[in-house]
Amino acid sequence: MKYPSVFDASTTESLVRRVQSLTPATTPQWGTMNAAQMLAHVCVSYEFVFTDKHKPANALMQWLLTRFLKPMVVGDRPYPKNSRTAPSMIVADKRDFAAERQRLIDYMWRVQQMGEKEFEGRMSLSFGPLTAQEWSTLYHKHLDHHLQQFGV
Question: Which residue segment(s) compose the domain that 49 sits in?
Answer without folding.
Answer: 9-80+104-149
